[in-house]
From TrEMBL:
Localization annotation: Membrane
Short name of any one Pfam family annotated for the protein: Ca_hom_mod
A GO term from the CC aspect: plasma membrane
Membrane topology: Multi-pass membrane protein
Protein name: Calcium homeostasis modulator protein 5 isoform X2
Length: 302
């Protein structure tokens, strides 16, 4: 039991790191499987370049968009954005967008890097490039440019042209390692800059992360508890045909305020938007009555 608790504590403590690691491994494994099972270079002068680029870049784009769609912060930023008079602009919104983009870029970069290290997609695309072909075939057999698209399939007739496959693989792997090093360096640089500009100390930042994690866990559990109690009250009132008891719930203004993006101020040590809303108190909003009427009208239409 103690070992299980230790493993669970380790998982909770390093959940983000483990999550990124799992995403990286799944993306790398998916790329290898995709390359071995699905990818078949057409070995055609007209199709090699677009075919190779599609397999190299389109899945990366799909993974990037999926990273946005699966992030809860994306929907927290966008939900109700068009209906709010203040909109979603501002420095904090831009910072969150950059953070979302950085997190969503992990899987696409992994896909492209692993694909370049494997070399299959690049070999197919590069062999169909006229500009790269003229450069590779400079000083070689006159039929080199015509036979180059057949190189990925091993069908190029002159042996010296077929040997260009090694050059294409070397170029692909060099680009892959360059991408990995560049992404790692940029990630380290931005992390160092963010920590250098941090308004809180290392210990306070560690406490902030722990608090945010625990608050999210308690918030999800509280959602379930209150949803159960409210549904039980409504069903009991419906079947017993009597007026329901008063059920305390946050106002529309409270929900709106607690859903805003959090910005830390050293003068007010609030570690989340909910923390700030609770400490500052809830101010009634004149939109509550209007929103209630809209929701009631919508329910009646349904």
């Amino acid at each position: 039991m103690d070992k299980f608790k230790a493993v669970l504590d380790l998982h909770l403590k390093h959940r983000s790191t483990l999550g990124y690691g799992v995403v990286t491994l799944l993306t790398a494994g998916g790329e290898r499987l995709f390359s071995a099972v699905v990818f078949q270079c057409p070995c055609s002068e007209a199709w090699n370049l677009p075919y190779g680029l599609v397999f190299l870049l389109v899945p990366a784009l799909a993974l990037f968009l999926l990273g946005y769609a699966l992030s809860a912060r994306t929907w927290r930023l966008l939900t109700g954005c068009c209906a709010r008079t203040r909109g979603c602009a501002g420095l904090r919104g831009m910072v969150v967008c950059v953070q979302l983009s950085a997190a969503a870029a992990l899987a696409p970069l992994t896909w492209v890097a692993v694909a370049l290290l494997g070399g299959s997609f690049y070999e197919c695309a590069a062999s169909g490039s006229t500009a790269l072909g003229s450069r590779l075939c400079r000083g070689r057999d006159p039929v080199c440019a015509q036979q180059l698209p057949r190189v990925p399939c091993g069908q190029a007739k002159p042996p010296e042209v077929q040997d260009l496959l090694k050059d294409l693989k070397a170029q692909s792997q060099i680009l892959g390692w360059f991408l990995i090093c560049s992404a790692s360096f940029f990630s380290l640089l931005t992390t160092c800059y963010a920590r250098c500009r941090s308004k809180v100390s290392y210990l306070q930042l560690s406490f902030w992360k722990t608090y945010a994690q625990k608050e999210q866990e308690h918030l999800e559990n509280t959602f379930v508890d209150y949803a159960n109690m409210l549904s039980e009250r409504n069903l009991k009132s419906f079947f017993e045909n009597k007026r329901p008891d008063v059920f305390p719930m946050p106002t529309f203004a409270a929900w709106e305020a607690a859903s805003e993006l959090h910005c830390f101020h050293p003068s007010q040590q609030h570690y989340s938007t909910l923390h700030r809303v609770v400490d500052d108190g809830l101010v009634p909003c004149p939109q509550d009555a209007e929103t209630t009427r809209i929701l009631v009208g919508t329910a009646q239409d349904l």
